[in-house]
Amino acid sequence: MNRRDLLLLAATSTFLPHVRAGAWESDSFSNDDAMDWASQCAGSNGPEFILVTLNAALTDGYLEAPECSMAVAAAEVVAASKGKPSRFLPKELSSWLERQQKAEIAKIAPVAVKAVSRVLNGPKSELRELWQENRKAFPAWSGHMQSLIARLK
Predict the structure, then answer these.
(1) What is the Cα 148 distance to its own chain's centre?
(2) Tell me, what DSSP letter sits at residue 59?
(3) pLDDT above 60 (res 12)
């Protein structure tokens, strides 16, 4: 390892306690699961894929972090269909949304509110638990989730 690489590693390691594997920031699309979901959604037809994702977050039992992240991403698409997109919405989803009947997707908003509320408030939400472990980062993530709920209403 050369000096430059060592300095880069030292500089970035100060941020590592604030980042979980697969998550980069607290917004809805800064994690691997949401971005993978976005790619799948961009290849789908109509709102069914979104609805299935949101309903998966409303089942009984423990909600794993990947399902939480995908539900949040799906809710972001619903918010965008209502004319309230996140500035982090991937271009592939914006392009996909342009080809869809936005009114049909917007009708899913009540389900999206329930799903994001479950992710944010539990019960049994692994994503919430993971963000709560970092007391400094949790308020930013929680704020993003509350903003998303507001954009869905």
Answers:
(1) 10
(2) S
(3) no
